[in-house]
Each structure stands twice: as structure tokens, then as C-alpha cells.
Amino acid sequence: MIIEARLRTTLIAPVAAFAAVGAMTLISPVNAAPANTSANMSVWALSAHAAASAQSASSAHAAARARSRISHKDRIRDVRSAAADNTTALKRNKRNKTADIVTVKASHGRKLVVSVKTRKAMPKSHMGVVVRVKTGAGEGNYDFQLDFTRNILGQGNGLTLRNYSYEPVTCGGLKVKRSKAKHLITLTVPSRCIGSPQRAKVGLATIVEKSDKVFIDDGFDTTSNGVDLARSHWIRRR
After folding, report:
1. Quick check: 238 and 68 in contact, CB under 8 A?
2. How many CB atoms lie within 10 A of CB 11?
3. Which residues are CB-contacts of 32 (< 8 A; sequence separation ≥ 6)?
4. Close Cβ partners of 130 (under 8 Å, ≥ 6 residues apart)
5. Helix H segments across the chain?
6. b/e burial code for range 92-108 (CB count within 10 A of at least 16 → b)
């Protein structure tokens, strides 16, 4: 998999062991922007009260129009891969099926439930799923990141929710369910864990590590650069 000194230009958070060698993150938690823009949208602020009021009104209007569930069909054969010794050279890999996303579904009520279906079931180990959630309340282009990891890139095994500063969020009720027969993984986050927002956007990526390669697929974009995640439309809380 990605060499330790270059481990983190792509999709899961930094590991302390790699900090000394300037490692970056697989989906950088600080400098991420939607995959369809080149702008650095890591931080912005509305200082004027009028601007804040206008944003609040716009948010309320958008929430009213949003749907409470989405079902997005991703283009198949759009996985990106890189050799272990060159993480900056992600290229399209049409043959990989275990990271290749077919659909992403999400619903928002008392719980935010996000599921991903791949062309072939993801492996039991050396894999990960990253979900980013934008609630509209934070400064960055996302407010929470949920990492489901199974011995991928030094992450060990776990299901961890973090805020925009990549600090762990302690909250009960996080769940993951796998259905090998359906090639499906479902992640559940209680709405209270993310501030009980009235609306949310989600971004999702799959990661598979095999031999000397890493395979990445962005569920809402076909040209993942391994750093950014595209997002869904707003999902209204029902």
C-alpha cells in the first residue's frame, strides 16, 4: 500500500506514526474541497450580521425543498488506483470491482443512514469507507467525517466519527452493517451526534488496499484525486 513517508495524500486521517515524515492524509480533513472545484474552501466566514441572516433564510428555503432520502447511481468502472510508491499518480482502473461504487443511498431522520453498494463485495480486511457530512453549521465544506476501517493504511479496525478539526466525537449509536451477498455496507449515525441538523449533504468514498496498490472510488464523482470528495444534494430531515 502507500509507502509510509507518503501515506496520507488521499483518503483517511493522519496517523501519528507518520507525522514525523510529513505524511499527509487520504482525504485531507482540513484542506478538502468538493471534487468539482479547484478552490481551497477549507475555511470561510460570514462576518456581517446581514450576510448571516441572508444565509439563514437561504438555508431554511433549501431545507424546505430538499428530499429526506437520496439514491444516487455512480458511474461504474471509474475507480482510481495508484502504486504504493507513487500516491500522486492516481489513474483510472476499470478492472477493480471491490471498490467500484454502483449506488449510494442516504436517508435522514432520527438517524443519518448512508449505504454504498459496490460491483463486488468489499474485502473483509484492508478496506475502508469514508463518509463526510455537511450540516450547514460549520466553517468548512464539511462538518463531520465518519471512518469505517479494517486494517487499511495503518488505521486498524474501527468506526470513528470526527468533527471538522478531526477531533473524535464521543457519541453512542454509531453502527455499521455489511451484506456480502448484496455487496452492501450501511453506516448509521444518530442525528444527535451531528447536532440534529435540519438538512445534510453527504460525500462518500471507498478504499481498498491490495498488494502494492490502493484503489479509491468517489461515490459522487468520476475523477477522484484522492484528496477531495464530491457531495450529494441537501437531504432534509424528515
Report:
1. yes
2. 26
3. 41, 42, 132, 140, 141, 142, 227, 228, 229
4. 11, 12, 26, 27, 145, 146, 147, 148, 204, 205, 207, 229
5. 16-19, 49-65
6. ebeebbbbbbbebbbbb
Q: Is the pLDDT of residue 203 over 60?
A: yes
Beta bridge partners of 129: 148, 206
Q: Which residue has the cell 463531520?
A: 144
Grid coordinates given for 97: 470491482
Residue 123: which domain range? 4-236
DSSP string, 53-93: HHHHHHHHHHHHHSBSEEEEEPPSS-EEEEETT-TT--EEE
Has residue 57 got a pLDDT over 50? no
Range with lowest mean pLDDT among 27-36, 134-143, 157-166 = 27-36
C-alpha cell at 74: 455512480
For the chain, the domain total comes to 1
Contact between 131 and 105 (Cβ < 8 Å): no
Q: Residue written as cell 477522484?
A: 224
Torsion of CA 204, 209, 215, 218, to 10 degrees: 0
Q: Which pLDDT score is estimated for 84?
A: 65
* Whole-angstrom distance, CA of residue 106 vs CA of residue 163: 20
CATH number where 121 lies: 2.60.40
CB 175 within 8 A of CB 188: yes
User: Torsions phi, psi of 43, nearest 5?
Assistant: -145, 135
DSSP class of 121: P
Residue whose cell numbers read 457519541: 171
pTM score of the predicted model: 0.75
